[in-house]
Design brief:
- By secondary structure, the protein is an all-alpha fold.
- It has one domain (about 5-150).
- About 65% of the residues lie in helices and about 0% in strands.
- The chain contains four helices and no strands.
- It has helices spanning about 10-30, 45-65, 90-105, 110-150.
- Helix 1 packs across helix 4 (about 110-150), helix 2 (about 45-65) packs antiparallel against helix 3 (about 90-105) and helix 3 packs antiparallel against helix 4 (about 110-150).
- The radius of gyration is 17 Å and the shape is globular.
Length: about 150
């Protein structure tokens, strides 16, 4: 991969814009595409929306508990282990996946589901791996203890 410390400020700025755009772009595309609500089973739409809203709540909670520690690129000054972080190491990424899954399923979007599993899930797994590598490098045993007591 890359070392974010070796990036210029312009490259960091570009990544700070492009990575979040990877989450917004498919939502906009799906919004304008024809809908097949619940993939033809409209009874599933409320459940899908509930999954999406739960994901959004987790996503927002993760960002709120991170506060000033929130970063697009890997790196940290401390281990955040309060709120949702007591249970999940990457609630923002889990929230992003649940939000997109719920909304794409509710809309019945094949494009959205493909984008989710081909782009969003791998992107979040890679981001989580890079973050964990940075956290282990900086906090070693302290982070290992936290890592071992939480889910993804």
């Amino acid at each position: 991969m890359f070392e974010h410390k070796n990036l210029t400020s312009n490259q960091r700025f570009l990544l700070d814009l492009s990575i979040p755009s990877m989450y917004l772009l498919p939502l906009l595309i799906v919004f304008f595409l024809p809908k097949n609500f619940g993939f033809g089973n409209e009874d599933l739409v409320p459940y899908s929306l509930l999954i999406g809203l739960s994901g959004l709540a987790l996503w927002i909670a993760g960002m709120a508990y991170l506060g000033k520690a929130l970063r697009v690129l890997p790196g940290a000054d401390s281990i955040v282990a309060r709120g949702v972080y007591r249970f999940i190491r990457h609630p923002i990424y889990v929230g992003i996946v649940f939000t997109h899954f719920g909304l794409f399923f509710a809309c019945g979007s094949v494009f959205g589901m493909v984008f989710l599993f081909v782009i969003i899930v791998p992107l979040n797994v890679i981001r989580a791996q890079l973050e964990e590598k940075a956290m282990f490098a900086k906090f070693d045993d302290q982070y290992r203890s936290y890592h071992d007591s939480t889910w993804f």
